[in-house]
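>> Question from a student workshop board

For tomorrow's exercise we were told to take the sequence and the ligand below, predict the bound structure, and bring the output to class. My setup keeps failing. Could a helper post the expected result so I can at least see what it should look like? The ligand is zinc ion.
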Amino acid sequence: MDQKNLPEAKKQRKKTKVSNKATGKTHKKSVGKKKIVKKPVGIFFHFLFIILKVLFILVIAVGISGGGLLTGIVYGYLSTTVPVQPEQLEIRTGLTSYIYDIDENVMMELTGSQNINRIPISYEQMPYYLEKAFIAIEDERFDSHIGIDMRRIASSVVSLVVNKGRITQGGSTITQQVVKHITGKWDNTIERKVQEWYNAILLERKYDKKRILTLYANVVNEGNGCYGVQSASNYYFDKDVSDLSLAECTILAAIPNAPTTYNPTTEKGRVEVEDRKELVLGKMLELGFIDQKEYDAAMSQELNFTFTRKTAIEKPTTYFTDHVLNEVINDLTEQKNITRSIAESMVYNNGYKIYTTMDPYIQSGMDSVFMDPSYFPEKDENGNVLNKNAEKYGEVPQAGMVIIDPFTGYVKAMYGGNGEKTVSRAYNRATQAKRQPGSSFKPIAVYAPAMDLRLISPATIVDDVPVYLDEKNPDTIYPTNYVKNQYRGLTSIRYGIKASVNVVSARVWKEILGFENSVAYLKKVGIDREDEIYHDTVSVAMGGLRTGVSPLEMADAFTPFVNSGIYSPATTYTKVVDIDGNVILDNRPEYTVAYSEETAFLMRNVLSEVVTPKNSPYGGQWGGGGTAASHIKIKDGAIDVAGKTGTTSDNLDKWFVGFTPYYTAAVWYGYDNQIKPITLTSAEYSQAMIIWNAVMNKVHQDLPTTRFPDPSGNIVTREVCIFSGKIATDACRQDPRGNSVKTEFFVRGTEPSYDDICDVHVKAKVCTASKDNWGRYLLANPYCDPNTVSEVVRIQRKIPWVPSKPGEPMPEDVYLELPAGEYCTVHKPVATGHGAAITAPPTSHIDERLPSETTQPAPPVAEHTPDDDEETGDGLNFNDS
Ligand SMILES: [Zn+2]
Ligand SMILES: [Zn+2]
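>> Workshop helper replied:
Here is what the output should look like for this input. Compare the format with yours to find the bug.
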C-alpha cells in the first residue's frame, strides 16, 4: 500500500461511514443472510446462543472434550452434521458434457456457455479487483481465518450483550457462505449455525483459499437469475469477467449481500447498489487493496449497465434431452446432497457422459408425426375453424406422447407439444402436463387390480343400471354413462372394458374392489395417490383425479400388461460417468411384480377388444367394435395391439394408452387451457388415437410380425354365456340379441364348474296376444290359442332391478325379461258360468319388482334382430368418459 495515501484512505473510510449514517442506511442490518438471528427470539435463546458459541470455539479450536450438557448438545450437533463432500465442490470449467442415445452416439453436447445463467470461471479468470472487492466487503480476514472468524463471532457476542440481545454485527465468512451455497441450508437455527461452522472449518482444511474463493465466485447469487460472477458480468455489463473495471467489480461484490435490494435494473436498486459500491471501494482503500488514485477513478466512473440476456444456444434442446437433464439434475441434488443450482453447473461444465435410453429411430418417427400439422387440425377441409374457442383464446391443439420398452422401463422416445420445438427447456406435455386420464385409468385403477385379487374375471357380470354411488349426492344418479340414460343391464367385465361403461367400472371399484386396493395397485405401477383417494371418491374409477397424470406416467403404468405383470419405473438414462470414468449416477431400473402373469394375460386379452372392429358372438349392438376399433391397427394387423381410450367428461382431454408386444405408449391430446378451459369439438375427438396409430406404425414398420404371448398353463377356457358368466346352454345361443356364447379365459380355479350352467337365459311359452305395460309378452296359459303361443328365450335377473326413483331410466334388457308369474289375460277358460280365476303357478320373486304401472312409454318390440349390427366404432356411441 502506498503510504502517502493512507491518511486519505482513512478519511475516505470515515466519509463513507458518515455518509451511510447520514442517509440512514444500515447496510449490515439489512443483510438477510448475514444476520445470525433473523427474527427476534427470546432472550433465553440469545444467551444460550452465546454460551454455545463459546463452547463451540473451545471444542473446535482447543479440542477440549469436557463434560456438561451444553458440550453434549454441541457434540450432538456436530455428530449430525453431514460434511461437505469433495464431489459437492466439483464444478469445473471448460469441459463439455455429452448426452448419448441408446446406441451410444452423441445426441447433444453441453457446455457451460449454454447454461447462460451459470457459467463458472477458474481462479485465473477472476480479476484482482473482484477478488479483493469480495474479501473487503464480505470477509476482510478471509486470508487468515480458519473458515470461521473468531473476531467476528466475538464481536457479535459483545454486540449481543451490549445491545441486550439485538444483533447488529456479525455474519458469515466467505467460506461459510460457500458451505451454505453447497448445502442449500439457509436457515439460521443454532444447530444449523454450529454445523455450518464445522463444515467451514473442514472445508478450509481440505482446500486452499484460492479454490474456496473461486467456488464462492461461481455460486454466488448475483440477482436477476445470475449465479456466479461470469453470468453476472455478461448480464450487467456485457463483458467477460476478466475485462471488468474496478468500479464494475465493486458492483458485483455489492449485489450478493441482498440481490433484491441491490438490483441495478430498478431505479431504487440502482441508487442502493451505487451507495454500496462506495462502501466497497472505501473498504478496499482502507485495507490497502487499492490506492487513492484507483479509488477516485472508480468513484467517478460512469457505470454502463447493459442488461443483456445472451441466448447462447443456437439449437434448442429436445424434449427428451430436457427431461433427461431434469432427471440427472434432480438425482444429483438428492444423491450428492447439493443444491439444484450447483448440480446444474456440474451437469453443464464437468465433462460428464450421460447415457440415455433414447432410441433415435423411434424418436425420429415420433418427431415426424408431431411436426406434421395435419395431425393437429385447426380447420376442416372447407377451411372452417374447428374449434372457435381455441381461436378466440389464441390456443392451438397440443399433445404429448411417450413410448416405453415394457421389458426394461426404458423410455424410447417422447414429444411434448404441437410442432417444432423452438426453445430449450420448454414446457413438456409428455412429462409435465398433469391431465385427467378419463377412462384410460380404468385398467390400472379398477380392472387389473380386481382381476389380480381374483375378485372378478372377464366373464363376471355387473348390472349396468342407474346407480347412486356419489356419497355426497345420494339422490343423484352417479356415474352416468357416456350416452346419458343408456343402461345395458347385465354386462360382462369384458364388454364393460370394450365399450368403456362407467357404471361397470364404478360398481367394481366401489362394491367389489374397494379404494384401498385400488390405491395400493396404482402405487405398484408408479402412480401414488394415497393422499387423495378415499372410499367416497368413486370418480377415480372413471379417471377423475385431483392431480392428473402425465403421458409418461400412463405409458409406464401400462408396461406390466406386456411384461408378464412386472413393473419397472420409467427410466430415461442409465448412468452418468465423470471425466475420470467413475460412475457418479447409476440408474439401472429395478423390477417389481405388479400383477400376476395371468392378470397380465387377461388384461392384454380384454384390452384387445377395445381395438377390435367387431367381435362375434356378440350380436346386435353388443357386436360392435371397441372404442378405438376404427383408428388403431398396427402394420395392417400383423402386429397385435391393445389399449384404452380416455375422455374427460367435459371433453377437455383425449387419451389413448396402448401397447404392442414391443412397446407401450400413451398420447394425450387437448388444449393448454391458459385462459379458459377449451372443450374439444367432435372433429377433434379421435386425434389422440390418430397420433398414437401414426407414430406406432412408423415405429413398427420394420419389426417382425408378432402376437401377444400365449396364456400360461394356469389359464383355462370355458364356453360361457356373456350375460351370466356361467356355462352356456342352448338357450344362451338363442338370445334374441344374438348368440351370447363365448369362449372365455379364466385363471385356473376361477372358472365355472361344468354343472354351473347359465341361470339367466330361460325358455318359456308366451302368448303373443297379451303384453304387459312394457310390451313384454305374457306367459301362455292353458287356454291360449295355440296360434298365438310361441316358445321364446328370455332372461331373468337373480337380483331384480327395481327403479329406485320415479322416472328412472331403465336398463335395456328389462324388455327381454320374462314377466314371470304374469299370464295371458286375453285368453280365458271357456265360460262355465263361474268366472273361475286362472290358477297360476306359484309366483316367483320376480313379481315383486314388476311395476304395476309405469310412466315409461311402451317399449319397442322386445325382439332385437340378431343381425342388427351397430358399428359402434370410436367411442362416440360408447360410455367413454
Ligand atoms: Zn345364458
Ligand atoms: Zn294367450
